[in-house]
Design a protein that fits this description.
Length: 586
């Protein structure tokens, strides 16, 4: 959208994706260029041409004295189409991909370079490969800003993309386009209805604002960290993962539901999308915002695919367990670590993760590695952790998945627009492989029944036998709130790799999983099918880091969910208390 106010020639590079209903292409009051589901382009209701999706076109609109000449030509050659429309008013503002009233769904399309020629001269706009941005100045200096609404996807393949360059930092010309979606969402700009003040001496923890109506009570959680450290141990709550999963639609035709939760019905009713969903044109959702309702972020949330708690309610079990035992811990979030790096966690002897710390930015990874190198210790109390690469920009978080079974990005579009760095997963990035960091790698996801752990020899007699003080049974974790045990849902194991810490010790193993637990197909193993079968397990490990601290890993998303309930006791709880006691928290 930009302001004009005189005769002009407007040139736009455009590639249409799937549009199921009539959509606006270029509009101003009195003129409406639209496209329908069959690719039929119409100017004020008159047919202009039938276009092909996934093809770049040059669209030129020449306006003079109320007459518009429209030309459409395929970018890589082909027949040019021309049409004329008379009796049009002079536009003050031109909209691309939308119309002024916003009564219609916006356009699904890619937009490349834009130029505007008037009596005052020629202006050009070229989308940056770093974004998202909300306005764009002309390349040649003065003139109207291009206003960009709803946070479309930046750094996507443009008409100049040849497939030979996959990094926008090498040649930005290949990626100077944006992808518009009719369900893009930049976050709400709602005015505040309620402002609360958190006392400076508030105890760190997870709090909630309770909203009560005649239909029930809804609790909106928020996180309070201390102004200064109050403990030698901190819990790093995986807010990046909370945000990635927030308001996941989980279409039942693709993901069988074994339970229900009002949050997913809410997401479907309001067409909210998570980073696990696809846009209406089937391209993957790569941007999300915290300025939105996050109905899945609740203490009573149940994941329909497992019919069990997931994310925040599981992590609250850890905080409640520690609280019942009088163990004070500080609370930090992924956002704190991303903002402050190592400084956020340096004051603590031990850092505990939540149950599913899956999404990590470069700043988070660097901060954690520097913390460990300086002598800090880490307890990785989950599974499928340290996996996806993300970046933050204000309230927004970006992800590029590459090729995988959740959704696949387009060729050449693996780099994050926010930072320019490669996205995808940390295994493929190099230097930050989970196996090198925490000793285990994510191997399996299943909603089958969770399993107990079986102790290995080192848990009885080795240097880390203190973790099992008071654990009398050879097996533990046969019950739990996440699929019925301590090892399940998503599990990690030690893979054969030169990146494995040489002093890594396997303390326990969970195996005997049902046939639904199969090693993810993209994980290459040298030993073929026999080795893949042997990897159908969860490994509990520990090692001493070069910095002097220890790294303890449970290898399971379900671990925290197996902590004992109030007035109960079990071996999972004893192991956790032994860990905390080792760091002065008893």
């Amino acid at each position: 959208m930009f302001d004009v106010g005189q005769d002009f020639v407007l040139d736009v590079e455009i590639l249409f994706t799937s549009n199921d209903v009539v959509k606006p292409v270029i509009t101003w009051p009195g003129f409406l260029l639209t496209i329908d589901r069959d690719g039929r382009l119409q100017a004020n209701g008159t047919d202009v041409a039938t276009i092909a999706n996934e093809t770049w076109y040059g669209l030129s609109l020449s306006f003079h004295a109320g007459e518009l000449c429209l030309r459409l030509s395929p970018h890589h050659g082909g027949r040019e189409v021309e049409s004329r429309t008379s009796g049009l008013p002079k536009p003050a503002t031109i909209h691309i991909g939308a119309e002024a009233s916003h009564a219609q769904l916006t356009l699904n399309a890619r937009i490349g370079r834009i130029s505007l020629k008037t009596a005052s001269g020629k202006l050009r706009w070229c989308f940056p490969v770093r974004g998202p941005v909300e306005s764009l100045k002309p390349m040649d200096g003065g003139g109207p800003d291009l206003r960009i609404c709803n946070a479309p996807t930046f750094a996507v393949a443009s008409p100049r993309f040849t497939g030979e360059i996959h990094d926008p930092r090498v040649d930005a010309d290949h990626f100077d386009a944006i992808h518009l979606h009719d369900d893009d969402f930049a976050g709400f700009d709602w005015a505040a209805d309620l402002v609360i003040s958190v006392p400076a001496d508030a105890r760190p923890g997870v709090y909630a604002v309770a909203i009560e109506t005649d239909r029930g009570v809804e609790q909106l959680p928020f996180f309070v960290r201390p102004q200064a450290p109050t403990s030698s141990v901190a819990v790093l709550l995986p807010t990046a993962t909370y945000l990635a999963y927030a308001d996941e639609q989980l279409p039942p035709d693709r993901y069988p539901w074994h339970g229900s939760d009002r949050s997913h019905l809410f997401a479907i009713d309001n067409n909210f999308l998570s980073l696990y969903d696809v846009h209406s044109d089937m391209s993957g959702v790569s941007l999300t915002s915290s300025r939105r309702p996050r109905a899945t972020l609740r203490a009573d949330y149940h994941y329909p695919l497992s019919n069990s708690p997931h994310l925040l309610p599981v992590d609250l079990q850890l905080l409640k367990f520690l609280g019942r035992h009088g163990i004070d811990v500080d609370i930090l979030t992924d956002h704190d670590l991303d903002d402050e790096g190592r400084a956020a966690i340096t004051p603590y002897r031990l850092l505990l993760t939540g149950s599913h710390p899956e999404y990590w930015s470069s700043a988070m990874m660097t901060g954690l590695k520097e913390y460990l190198s300086s002598g800090g210790s880490l307890a990785y109390l989950g599974g499928n952790g340290f996996y996806w690469v993300v970046a933050f920009q204000g309230d927004k978080m970006e992800l590029r998945r590459g090729k995988n079974d959740i959704w696949s990005g387009r060729p050449g579009e693996i780099h994050l627009a926010m930072t320019g760095e490669p996205g995808g997963n940390w295994e493929d990035r190099g230097l930050h492989h989970p196996q090198a960091l925490v000793g285990v790698t994510y191997v399996i996801m299943s909603f089958g029944k969770s399993r107990p752990y079986r102790r290995l020899e080192e848990s009885h007699y080795g240097n880390y036998a203190w973790l099992f003080d008071g654990v009398l049974s050879n097996t533990f974790g046969a019950e739990g709130g996440v699929l019925g045990g301590a090892a399940g849902y998503e599990i990690d194991a030690v893979i054969r790799s030169e990146e494995t810490p040489k002093n890594l010790v396997r303390l326990a193993v969970a195996d005997g999983f049902d046939e639904s637990f199969q090693v993810r197909p993209d994980l290459w193993v040298a030993g073929g099918e026999a080795e893949r079968t042997a990897l159908r397990r969860a490994d509990m490990t520990i090692y001493q880091h070069e910095g002097g601290g220890v790294v303890f890993s449970t290898g399971s998303v379900a671990w925290i969910g197996a902590l004992p309930n109030p007035s109960q006791d079990n071996d999972v709880g004893r192991i956790m208390l032994n860990l905390m006691g080792r760091f002065g928290c008893e």
